[in-house]
Amino acid sequence: MTFVLFAEQMLNGLQLGVMLFLMASGLTLVFGVMGLINLAHGSLYMVGAFAAAGVAAATGSFLLALVAALAAAAAAGAIVEILVIRRLYARNHLDQVLATFALILIFSEGTRWIFGSFPLYLNVPAYLAGPVTLPGGIQYPLYRLTLIGIGLTIAGGLYLMIARTRLGIQIRAGEADREMIAALGIDISKLYTIVFALGAALAGLAGALVGTIQSVQVGMGEPVLILAFVVIVIGGIGSIKGALVGALLVGLTDTLGGVLLPRAFATFMDNSAASSTGSALASMLIYLLMAAVLFLRPKGLFGGAT
Amino acid sequence: MITERYFNAALLGGLALVAFWAYGADEPFTITLVTKVAILALAGVGLNIALGQGGLISLGHAVFFGIGGYAMGILASHAQSYQPLTLGPLVIEGTNSMPLIWLAAMVAAGLAALLIGLVSLRTSGVYFIMITLAFGQMFYYFSISWPAYGGEDGLSIYVRNSFPGVNTLDPIQFFFLCFMLLLLALLFHAMLVRAPFGLALNAARQSPERAQAVGLNPFRLRLAAFVISGVITGLAGALFADLNRFVSPTMFSWQLSGEIMVFIILGGTARLCGPVAGAAMFIALEHWLGGLSEYWHIYLGLLLLAVVLFAPGGLIGIITRRGAAHD
Amino acid sequence: MKFKRIAAAASAIALGTAALGTAAMAEAHMSDVKVGMITTLSGGGAGLGIDVRDGFLLAVKLADTKHVELVIEDDQRKPDIAVQLADKLIQSEKVDVLTGIIWSNLAMAVVPSATAQGKFYLSPNAGPSALAGKGCHENYFNVAWQNDNLHEAAGAYASSAGYTKSFILAPNYPAGHDALTGYKRQYTGELAGELLTQLGQNDYAAELAQIRASGADSVFFFLPGGMGISFLKQYADSGIDLPVVGPAFSFDQGILQAVGEAALGVVNTSQWNKDIDNAANKTFVEAFQAEYGRLPSLYASQGYDTANLLISAISKADVHDPDAFRAALKEADFDSVRGDFAFGSNHHPIQDIYVREVVKEGDVYTNKIIGVALEDHQDVYVADCKM
Description:
heterotrimer; B: mainly alpha; C: 8-stranded mixed beta sheet; 6-stranded mixed beta sheet; 40% helix
């Protein structure tokens, strides 16, 4: 494998990683602050993508579409939090799993009811289309580079927000001791709604950004949701830093494993069989990684708060 | 007054009665539906032991269901082609005999539960939910990409496997076979709850520290419960495969893990017959709502949400409470 | 499970003049038939099932016959549900003919046991190789294609276009393996690379990097549904400038609008297109748009042909006389929207497979025929079928 190809695959892994981080950070925040496990997080990702596709079709503006994705997912998140989720904070994990599983059914079929069964159109805007040449002669799509940039910027922004702002202090207080912040006179239900809507907005943004180069369709959120779970379990639930490290680990493992394993098998098998066996094993690789991490550190790499 | 015990009897009796009625009215499809209820309930009974008794929220029980299904599919397909299955030095003849297939399904599911349990039970809470979910995905992707037994196409078995003295192709006879296994599993569950093991398990769930203090080993207790749970769900998987005469990777899907859990919640968590009531209700709804609207999943979701939010005791909780209030 | 009973032809409408005339004549000596349709109407992939259903219903409506009773069920794309629905249709509804299944894995679960119970099965979409070769059955008729056909045509086209270094990829599941095998069967050049991707994969960055590095002169892919949309968008954005060939599935009417500009100019192979010049096709395309307000898809054309095959058979024989009915089906005496259509000895189609190009007509992306890839093409499994 040439250096150029390897570098391009590293960028691909990085890009998958930062998008997973957008999903995972919301999940892990919601769990860290409210102690809630939310299976319907993937639905918010889907809401973002559909809102973006709808607005892009109506206005032709990609930026407006992203704004719409953020707004729609945040609004959907806030509404769901007020109607359903806040009744679940005091419940056990089992009830949370079940209720949010029910929300997936409602979101998915509801979206299909409104938008129909066919995938929607959403495309890269002209000013971000096509490849650029990076140092070393690497040809890489500009849009994917932009995704990496947006993802890292948001990661930095989240870090600053949690470290420096008033909201961040409240979030950290909530993670440390939930009873305590109520005693401090903070409007806790408002805080919870804001945190949930923030997580939802990040998921919606990820849905719109990724939906642009993939297909905007019902059920697009669940595979990403499961990857995001793997990410936060590896990183340690509740830890933003863990979510970032976990997301990058999963992104790189998944991308490089898919490329390298079939090649490795091809050294002692014929091509078709190697491709088949290699990609079968590659699809299991991140779950093996997760099992290995949990075996060594049952609370993930940066966990412990739970 | 309706106590839970009377309700359970009515529920199980009702299931058998529906099958009998359908037999008399020549409605073989209704028998197929009740058979499906019995089999899914059996899978639920398996999960209920881990979940209700052990407090282990496994979102990966489809693994055991699928392994049971594939045990049936693999053995029966080798019997169909008269080619023995070779595992290194081990040569296994295919078989059409249900008892042998059940045994293989239970052993295979038990082994898988042991291995998964050894890793997963080191964690707890949300980590446990997610790691079981991830193991489920691992098996799902593997079964899709592994070409030997049909991959995503699955495996079709043209004739239902045989059980001595029973014509399994006759829907009503196959129903009673499944129903008997369900009753046995319920009996086993009821005995387990009262046995020292069940009491210890309950103690470990409520307070691991205290259990440890009196010399119990919570990890081993949970592991044993998890294995037992996997074995029963594996048996259900083998029966389900025989009901459809078909196995496919969808038996490993995480949605199925979710559905098995839904049965328990709809019926009532940790109640003996919760999975039976839940599975019956789920199948009835699927049948009835599916007839009303293409978008029936919305209504199913709303109902499930309502049960979780407003009726935590599930169906049995509602009925037995109302019964008590009339008294 | 969706349950809907349609007494066909409740309202006669004045559509399709030629078809109506012959239908009215045949109506007198048609025999009754009860058809069970199992297809995907909810969840992922519902668009395909809806098109097959609508095409089928349209044909029945145009034939203006009271002799076809149809029971439609939704399989939710789940094999176990499909098997149970088949049991229900056979045991409770007592249908004579089954049809409708979209996916190969569901067909493999349902067809063998249905035909073993003496029912007829007309496949409007799936054509797994097992059912064309060793597992063929006298009561199983495939009205669409054997799964390999369109991929073989793509291979034949690639050779005739002078490509000598193809990069090929498909998902790692049985239909994906069949696609690559089918392509290689007719393709004479060498391969620059061969990849199996994960089923349901939506990010192809890693594969695109390998294509770019491989020195290929063309790309063949089979990635049905959302996977194909993702691949094409990312391909267009990657700056790789190689010609792309694929089977019709990723370029069909239903999903083309979601792919958009990225698909323009792509060459794909299909046994049908809306511009095939014959009377039956004209009637179909116009009536479909009038009835449903959208352009018909490949799947709709297959549903339409399936219903017309059935109607041609019941005007010749009674379904309760299986030998006569089978012979009537075998004749395939109906006006197919694809033009010439005949069954091979394994009851799979012998038909032309066309080369299409994606074009834009006004605001709508659609296909236009640019040539024929394979004439009177038959699958290779026919030799294994002992019937």
